[in-house]
Write a structure and sequence with these properties.
- 40% of the residues lie in helices and 19% in strands.
- The longest helix is centred in the middle third of the chain and has 21 residues, at 151-171.
- The termini are far apart.
- By secondary structure, the protein is of the alpha+beta class.
- A 7-stranded mixed sheet has the order 1-2-3-4-5-7-6, with helices on both faces.
- Strand 2 and strand 3 (104-112) form a beta hairpin.
- It has one domain (24-283): Aminopeptidase.
Length: 284
């Protein structure tokens, strides 16, 4: 047994030296180490769609506090980070709340492309996004991402991402884009199967924060997830995690979207008119 262990350790060392570790092994190691696929029921938080003025304020406050803490923005008088995209009636925000304290720990917003507002990344990647539009693609962007610096929040963030991703797929969108910090790009590309389509640029409204534009084809994503992950153990099986054959979760999403179609989002999101936050120039 000791000899076998030594052989295995030698092989692992050689692989590391030659940088020959496979992408599948890389995914397994990353997901096992971070335990990102742990379910909310096993954790200490719940995932909810923002449906109230209070919920929207909590999400905007979390974004503000985290962006300020890491030096992306100046402190706002309102204590909130609110942009036109977040309060667009067609946007969808999701928040993760600690079960005991009911305090928010992670949030993100799904923005649907529109003639009036466009997408947040249009600010620095207009050519790349216009190329997608030229193909008559229906595009969404995930923006206003924020998570507290704790283990539960990192875990919860993937569940927030799952909710928004499945929503976009069931809704029938073609493409999803997201602008990410260079240090996070490998996670989106290697683990979440995004592709970099925009070079290094800097967000003027976020203290010149560096970013890459990442893109994924939502219509082919389930099959690509299946090919990449379906034969991996549960702790690393993102295909199963992102609904996979979980028809109950998909049905729940379809039912919610059907209700939205019967009750236009503008009616159900009337509360955003009561947020009443004066926007700073860099928010717009």
């Amino acid at each position: 047994m000791q000899a076998l262990t030594n052989i295995n350790n030698t092989n692992i060392s050689e692989c590391r030296e030659k940088r020959t570790i496979s992408i599948k092994d890389k995914r397994m190691l990353r997901l096992k180490r971070t335990k990102l696929t742990q379910t909310p029921a096993e954790g200490k938080y719940s995932i909810k769609l923002v449906k109230s003025p209070e919920g929207l304020r909590e999400a905007c406050k979390l974004v503000h506090d985290r962006y300020f803490d890491i030096g992306l923005i100046n402190k706002q008088n309102s204590g909130l980070w609110v942009t036109p995209y977040q309060i667009n009636p067609d946007s969808r925000a999701v928040i993760a709340l600690m079960r005991i304290s009911n305090k928010p720990i992670a949030t993100a917003t799904l923005v649907q492309d529109s003639p009036n507002l466009g997408l947040p990344s249009d600010k620095i990647y207009p050519e790349e996004i216009n190329r997608l539009r030229a193909k008559n693609r229906k595009i969404v962007e995930i923006t206003s991402l924020a998570a507290k610096p704790c283990k539960e929040a990192v875990n919860a963030f993937l569940h927030v991402f799952k909710w928004l991703g499945v929503y976009a797929i069931v809704k029938g969108y073609d493409d999803m884009v997201i602008s990410v910090h260079p240090k996070h790009a490998p996670f989106y590309e290697d683990i979440l199967l995004f592709e970099r389509i925009g070079g290094l640029k800097y967000y003027p409204g976020l203290k010149e924060a560096p970013a890459y534009l990442e893109w994924t084809d939502l219509q082919t994503l389930p099959e690509r997830m299946k090919q990449a992950y379906s034969d991996l153990p549960d702790f690393a099986n993102l295909y199963k995690f992102f609904a996979g054959n979980d028809m109950e979760f998909i049905k729940k999403m379809k039912d919610m979207i059907e209700k939205e179609d019967m009750c236009p989002p503008k009616d159900s999101w009337d509360h955003v008119m009561h947020v009443n936050v004066a926007m700073e120039p860099d928010m717009v």
